[in-house]
Amino acid sequence: MKIINLINLLDLNKIKGMINTMNASIYETISSCRICGSEDLNEFLNLGSQPPANSLTKKDDPEIQRVPLRLLFCNNCKVVQIGESVDPKFLFSKYVWVTGTSKGAHKHSKFFFESINKRNRGFKSTVLEIASNDGTFLKEFQNQGYEVIGVDPAINIAEIATSNGIPTIAQFFDEKFALGLKNKNKFFNIIYARNVIPHVKNIHSVISGINILLATDGLGAIEFHDASLILNELHYDSIYHEHIFYFSIKTLSYILSRYGLEVFDLAKSPISGGSWIIYFAKEKRNKSKFLIKAISEENQLRINTIQKWNKFALKTISHAEDLKFKIKNFKGKIIGYGASARSSTLLNYCNINNSQISYIVDNNKLKHNLLTPGTNIKIVSKDLLIEDKDNINLIILLAWNFKEEILEDIRKIGYTGKIIVPLPDKVQIL
What we know:
Layout: H1 12-22, E1 27-29, E2 41-50, E3 67-74, E4 80-82, E5 84-86, H2 88-92, H3 103-119, E6 126-130, H4 136-143, E7 147-151, H5 155-163, E8 168-169, H6 175-182, E9 188-194, H7 203-213, E10 214-225, H8 227-232, E11 245-246, H9 249-257, E12 262-269, E13 275-281, H10 289-300, H11 306-328, E14 334-337, H12 341-349, E15 360-361, E16 379-380, H13 382-388, E17 394-397, H14 403-412, E18 418-421, E19 428-429
Parallel strand pairs: 6-7, 6-9, 7-8, 9-10, 14-15, 14-17, 15-16, 17-18
Antiparallel strand pairs: 1-5, 2-3, 3-4, 4-11, 10-13, 12-13, 18-19
């Protein structure tokens, strides 16, 4: 099957070259809330200027432009968001995260299907996934007889999905795209977006697009990083330029309701160290007891207050100092495991670079032999770790949210040295 390419996007390398040649900015700074338009914004955490987290480079590539990484709190609608918007074409037109490289993602895809299928009342129906990546999650629906289609702006990843039998449109999802499908009388009984809604700059257009394409009796689902976990377990490494918003149940429900989409249920997800899956519909459905309880707990914990986020900022500064001290004073060879986007924030903010870490192991072949943004640490395959295990004294679990999966890999190859798990909450040495 040939990929459906509805727009002519430039190759990311060409975009990088043009940006650096012209010295043009890849970002803009906001002056008002992206959700409600209020100018009453509080900056409470500044993680410094950092290159976009997934802008991996080759040895001789020009340096990627650094962008301020600041967290703001809207005093009107209570949404937490970053202060700068990076051009989405730069971030997503060519992508290096492939869902299928994670064993945990495959396992979660089965749970995710069962969770949606149960709430879909058993109908075999049409499914649309927004930012579907390599189609790992749609595959579960397809195997159960659902008609599926994916939408993803990364042409290279969309090609992988299509070659694996998941029809994928290489385009950004928005209101204009949705109207195009509506004009072809295309509607969907199920629409879901996993860990993408917090990424989108034009969020109003995306939510409107969901409303346009969702059938009257359809089911919608959004998976998003749980703000209460970000706060209480100190997930400051989840803050990077792709993640524009840091939603709570209350704040995400607010923007959905503005487009006639009513939240009725909630489920826990293990992704990103702890996420929610929020379920919504156009028609009125009774709110589940679990949702009502979760909203009550969120209110009790004061998740939607600037005071809570100010405390988070202070703990972040303290944690970073502790990690820097431990790495600086460690004697011996150090490597990292997991060149995730979140590792980029951690390394850049803590000023840990290639002078301290020899290399980072990652299972994603698309990242091999590239350098981490800003810190210039080479990314390698697990084969080098196997060869080098007796010379390594410390491994930093940068992708700590896949801790059990990575520890199992490390133990299998016979590594016996020390391991640092930087998060959640505090630095642990195993």
